[in-house]
Specification:
This protein has helices at about 30-35, 45-50, 70-85, 95-110, 125, 135-140, 140-145, 150-155, 175-180, 180-190, 200-210, 235-250, 270-285, 295-305, 315-320, 385-395, 395-400, 420-425, 430-445, 460-475, 480-500, 500-515; strands spanning about 10-15, 20, 60-65, 85-95, 115-120, 155, 160, 170-175, 225-230, 260, 265, 310-315, 335, 345-350, 355-365, 365-370, 370-375, 450. By secondary structure, it is of the alpha/beta class. It starts with 10 loop residues before the first strand and ends in an 8-residue tail after the last helix. About 50% of the residues are buried.
């Protein structure tokens, strides 16, 4: 046992050969020492981790740059070292470099990192190189509490290969008081001929964002803007792009593939729905803060989370940041529209008929962006220590702590996180905010018209090509149609290199989720 053990009891032989129990040391107060609210019992707890001895053992973790995900990894690694006596080396890299840093040693069968972090949608490329999560961890209360959707995210061909610690989604969020202000309402109606209301379509979003861009509408002496989004190419801008195009390209009446036509494997990234979404995003630059085209996830978190713009359609992190105790917009925010988690559209492209379908009520297509994924390398010689680290990292105490810090990038993924009481009691949110947030969370899980990431071998090649074209359009170098035509041509070449049948077989898993059917029903 490690010498700093919380409770130590030893049996020794006394002078007469009888077993004598030595007195136990005082139990460590983990709540006071580590700033957690409660150490939940179980094999992942602080107490159980403290009972392990990894003195002389060492693991290396590759994770994202600080603060998003990189900061909590570093924090809990230091705690794990203190508790177990082991050594944990943390290597940080920007998102744009993570894929190659993981895949190069994987492809050569080299041991460089014991634990790797990255996009969970990379699982198709990672799968041959990851160790399966042992059953004892799957049997923990923490694992059993994970929603079915995010259990599925961590699995490949029925085997759990990623250790779940995060659940991501993209959705609409906004500051409420400006919508309720009488002067704003009168000015907006005079300019647009309709009542000021929370938008439900991208067209309405553009009008509202334009109206609130470039003036001090909250009276803090600074200029505010209409929308903050993630646009930086080598960051996670793909998520914002997908969220926008989904409204126009994910048709609830069409099955058989959003990214490809599963039957023909023709890329859909340049169809009129995708083009319309990109055109609307290109136009959105005019109502973003200065320099918005270079905003990555960190800039977006602190921009919208600090009240610099009225609205945003991105990840959970900025919402959590806005609910920090010192935030100027704490408890003044809401999420979602009356129709769903994000913007909808009155017209959606139908790739089968080759026409636009009209919808009286806006059609909403939530994008479930699976976000962060991580696993243990099968080449690691310290797999037990690595899985124990994951177990500790994602225990109830640490997750409950990390969820409430927006810059950490840890977002709801357990069934218990879907309860408004959790956020009201654990985070001190107003009931209205907690209700708004959890209604959105549940809506994402129950929607039957969702978009999912492209989880196929070579996904990073597909996404890199996609965002290269999108970046050209956003910079004004090409029209949306020309840029996406170029992307579609490159996607065809990528599929040919990897093997169209290989891509099709993997893509069936995504289509099953999109179409809300079992895998064996996908032809």
């Amino acid at each position: 046992m490690h010498p700093t053990r919380a409770v130590l009891a030893a049996g020794v032989l006394g002078a007469f050969g009888a077993a004598v129990t030595m007195p136990a040391y005082a139990e460590t107060d983990y709540v006071a020492k580590y700033g957690i609210k409660e150490d939940h019992p179980g094999i992942c707890s602080y107490a159980s981790t403290d009972a392990k001895d990894y003195t002389g053992h060492e693991i290396t973790i590759l994770t994202h740059a600080v603060p998003v995900m990189g900061e909590p990894v570093a924090l809990h690694s230091k705690q794990f070292e203190e508790l177990t006596g082991g050594t944990v080396n943390v290597v940080h890299a920007p998102f744009g470099e993570l894929y190659q840093k993981v895949m190069i040693p994987f492809q050569t069968g080299q041991h460089v990192y014991d634990i790797v972090y990255g996009g969970s949608y990379w699982i198709g490329d990672w799968a041959p190189h990851l160790a399966a999560v042992p059953q004892k961890y799957l049997d923990t209360d923490e694992m059993k509490d994970i929603t079915p959707a995010y259990q599925g995210v961590a699995s490949w061909n029925g085997e759990r290969l990623q250790y779940t610690f995060d659940g991501d989604r993209n959705y609409f969020k906004y500051i409420l008081p400006p919508f309720e202000d009488a002067d704003n309402q009168a000015k907006f109606k005079a300019e647009y001929g309709r009542d000021l209301a929370v938008p439900t379509t991208w067209e309405e979003y553009a009008e509202v964002a334009t109206f609130f861009s470039g003036w001090d509408w909250d009276g803090d002496g600074e200029l505010e803007y209409g929308s903050t989004e993630i646009v930086k190419r080598d960051d996670v801008a793909f998520a914002n792009f997908i969220t926008r195009v989904a409204s126009y390209a994910k048709n609830p009446n069409v099955t058989g593939g959003f990214w490809f036509d599963l039957e023909t494997m023709t890329p859909q990234v340049n169809n009129p729905g995708f083009v319309k979404g990109l055109e609307m995003w290109m136009d959105a630059l005019r109502y973003m803060p200065p320099g918005g085209i270079n905003f990555g996830i960190g800039e977006e978190i602190f921009s919208w989370g600090g009240g610099e713009s009225l609205m945003s359609v991105t990840w959970d992190d900025a919402f959590i940041q806005a609910m920090q105790p010192d935030s100027p917009i704490r408890n003044k925010i809401r999420v979602g529209t009356q129709y769903g988690p994000s913007m909808g559209s009155h017209k959606v492209w139908n790739r089968v008929s080759g026409q636009w379908d009209e919808f009286e009520t806006p059609s909403v297509a939530p994008y479930v962006t699976w976000g962060w994924g991580a696993g243990v390398s099968k080449y690691s010689e310290e797999q037990e220590m690595a899985f124990d680290w994951f177990c500790f990292f994602s225990n109830y105490a640490n997750t409950n702590h990390d969820l409430l810090i927006g810059r950490f990038g840890v977002n709801p993924f357990r069934t218990s996180h879907m309860d408004p009481d959790y956020w009201e009691q654990e985070a001190g949110w107003d009931r209205a905010v907690a209700e708004s947030f959890t209604v959105m969370l549940r809506g994402m899980d129950t929607s039957t018209n969702r978009v999912f990431d492209l989880r196929v071998p070579g996904v990073n090649q597909f996404y890199t090509a996609m965002m290269a074209g999108v970046a050209k359009a956003m910079a004004g170098e090409m029209t949306a149609q020309a840029a996406l035509d170029e992307v579609a041509e490159e996607w065809t070449r990528i599929a040919d290199r990897i093997g169209v049948d290989v891509i099709r077989e993997a893509y069936k898993n995504v289509v099953a989720l999109e179409d809300n059917v079992s895998l064996d029903q996908v032809q």
